[in-house]
Structures are given as C-alpha cells and as structure tokens.
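Bench notes, afternoon.
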Amino acid sequence: MRAIIIDASVAVKWFNQEEDTDKALILREEHIDGIKMLCAPTQLTYEVCNTIWKNTQIPDEDAEKAAGALNDLGLNLTQPEKEDLARTMSIAREKDVTFYDASYIQLAEKLGTTLYTADQKQYEAARELVETRLLKEARI
C-alpha cells in the first residue's frame, strides 16, 4: 500500500461539491479499499471540519455526521515532533506559505512521498521540495 499525503484542499471535496470532487472521492475510495494510505498532519481534521462548519448549506445534524465520518475514515494523521516543527517553520518562511500549508510539505518530505493538493499556491510552493500533484491535473 502506497502512502500519500493529502492536504485539506483535497479532503474538503469529500463534503463539498466542488471542481475535482470526483478525483478526491477516488483517492478516498482507494484509501478505504486499502490501495493507498492517505496521510496528513493532525490539523487536517480541524481544517476540514472548519469548512464543513462554514458551509451553511449543510444542516447542523449533517455537519455533525460529516465530522464523525471524517474521523471514521482512519486517515493516518501525524503529530509533529520538535524537529518537524523547525523544518515546517523553515519551509513556511522560505516559500511564503502558512505554517499549516508548510506542514503538509514537511510531512511529504519526511515520508519521501507525494503530496496531493487542489491549491495552486500550495502546488507552486511544494513542487520544488517534494513530488507534488495538483488534483485537477492528476491522473487518478
């Protein structure tokens, strides 16, 4: 099973109908089927749940179910170690991205694997450091 990093811009598509939702859903299904192991820093849960919370088209009860469903997926969420935080800070400053976004790049770098993102700015920042796939261009 191949481990890949996904960022929140990919995972939010599981709950919000957006461009390239179909590709994000394929990645999720490959994780469920044991074909790929989806990994991310722990804050992915909070970032995705925040977008669910902000989506006024999702009723409260459905939003609560969606948050639980995200947890039930069994994503491999990684808590950073001290040296991870230092490297993440370095990436954030070097690439002028948020610390949140830099944490996905750092984790892909640490694990030596591919980062999938739907965010053009994240793609531009990451592609010189790690193998990066922009979701809209990815062949999934």
